[in-house]
Amino acid sequence: MALQTIAVIGGTGPQGKGLGLRFAQHGHHVLLGSRSPDRAEAAAAEINAKSPAAPRAQGGTNSDVAAAADLVLLAIPFAGHDEIVGCLTKALAGKIVISCVNPLAFDRSGPYALGVDHGSAAEAAAVLAPESQVVGAFHHVSASALWSDRPSLHHEDVLVCGDHEEAKSVVQELARSVTGRRGIDAGPLRMARQLEPWTAVLISINKRYKTQSGVRISGIDGSH
Amino acid sequence: MALQTIAVIGGTGPQGKGLGLRFAQHGHHVLLGSRSPDRAEAAAAEINAKSPAAPRAQGGTNSDVAAAADLVLLAIPFAGHDEIVGCLTKALAGKIVISCVNPLAFDRSGPYALGVDHGSAAEAAAVLAPESQVVGAFHHVSASALWSDRPSLHHEDVLVCGDHEEAKSVVQELARSVTGRRGIDAGPLRMARQLEPWTAVLISINKRYKTQSGVRISGIDGSH
C-alpha cells in the first residue's frame, strides 16, 4: 500500500505502541499521540530504538498528531473514549479512523463486555466523528506479540469492519504490516459489536491455557 | 469419552441433524427430537442411511427424547427457545444441557445479534432449567460441513463455556467427534454472550468470500 502518515491516539499504551512499531517497520511515518507529549516522545524513542532502519516515529499531543496524519488509529482505553474522540472531531474530519478499542471490564470471573452506547466503541466513534470514515480493526492481536521480534504474526487474522468500502480496503491492506496477509472483510461497522468483545474470549482462553491466543478464520485461502 | 445417549432438541434442523450425525458416527446413541415425531423419525432415518455402521439414531417428541437421554443438546431456533426449554425443565433436571443456539436476525445489511434476556440463549436456558448443568458449545460449525463426508472438521475449533467444570469437560471431549480435537475451554457460561453472536461474523464473511468460514484459535497446541 502507499506509505502514509499514521497517528496513534493513545500511542503510549501497549496496543497502540505495538501497532505503531509494526506500521513503522513497514515504512509508514508513525506519530504517537498522548495527553502528555513527553510520554509520547518517550514511546516514539522506544520504537526508534527497536527499529533503527524504519522511518523515525515521533510523539506529540493527541490533537497535534491527529491533525498531522492521513490516517488515525484510536488505541485508547474505553474509559475516556468519548471525551477524547469528541475533542478530535475536527482533526479527524475527512480521514480514515481505525478503532481497535475493546470495551471490557474484569471481575472475579474474568473479562466481560461492557454495554456501550451506539452498540460498540467503533460506532460511538462514528457518531462523534461524523465526517470521518470509521473502520474497526486490530482488536485481537496481542500487545506483547506486536512488541516481540517475530517478523509477522502469521498465525492470526485481522478482522476489519466498516461502512465505507474504500476505507475498509485501505485498512485491510494495512493489516499486512501485522500478519503478512490482507485483513478479512467482516462486514459493516456494526459487526464491531462482535469483534470488540471477542477479545474477552481470547483473554479468558489465555488465562486458562497460559498462552497467547489469537483468532484465525478458516475457509479463506491466503490470497484473500 | 464414554458412549452416551444424546438427545437433540430441534433435531430436524440442519445444525441439530448435522451434529447428531457426527455424534452417531462416533458411537453415541442419538435421539432426535421434534414437535412432530414423524419428522424426527424421518431425520433419524437420514442419519442412519448416511451411517449404516453407526448405532441406529431414533426420533421422538422433544420431551420424550429429553427424558430418555443422558445428555441433551438444544439445537432450536431462538424464536420459541424459551417456550420449548421451559416445557422441558423436569426432563432436563440433573443432566448436562448443551446449547448451540445462535440468537441472530437478518436485515439488508446481513446478520446481526439479537438482544437476549439474561445475556445469551445459554444463560436463558440455565435460568429455565436451574437443575441442569448448561454448557454453551458448537455454535460455529457449519451445518453443511457437518453433513458432508469430510471425516473431521480439523480446521475448526469448538469453543465451550460453562460454570460447571465437569460438565464442561464432558462437552470438550464430545467436541472430538466433530473436529477430532478436544474443545477449547472459553470460560464461564456468560462467555456465550460472545460465542453466540460471533456466528454473525462468520455468516457475514461467508457472504463476502463465498466460502464456509470457521473459527480456529491459534496459540493452543493440538494436545489441549
Please provide a written account of the structure.
The structure is a homodimer of 224-residue chains. With 224 residues, chain A is an alpha/beta fold. Chain A has one domain (5-209): NAD(P)-binding Rossmann-like Domain (Rossmann fold), CATH 3.40.50.720. The first copy, chain A, contains ten helices and eleven strands. Chain A has helices at 14-25, 37-50, 62-68, 81-87, 89-92, 121-128, 143-147, 165-174, 176-179, 192-209; strands at residues 5-9, 29-34, 58-61, 71-74, 96-99, 104-107, 110-113, 133-136, 159-162, 184-187, 214-218. In chain A, the strands form two sheets. Chain A has an eight-stranded mixed beta sheet with strand order 3-2-1-4-5-8-9-10, with helices on both faces. In chain A, strand 6 and strand 7 form a beta hairpin. In chain A, helix 1 packs across helix 2. Chain A is globular, with a radius of gyration of 16 Å. The two termini of chain A are 15 Å apart. The model of chain A has no long low-confidence stretch (mean pLDDT 95). At the A-B interface, strand 7, strand 10, helix 10 and strand 11 of A face strand 7, strand 10, helix 10 and strand 11 of B. Strand 11 of chain A pairs antiparallel with strand 11 (214-218) of chain B, so a sheet runs across the interface.
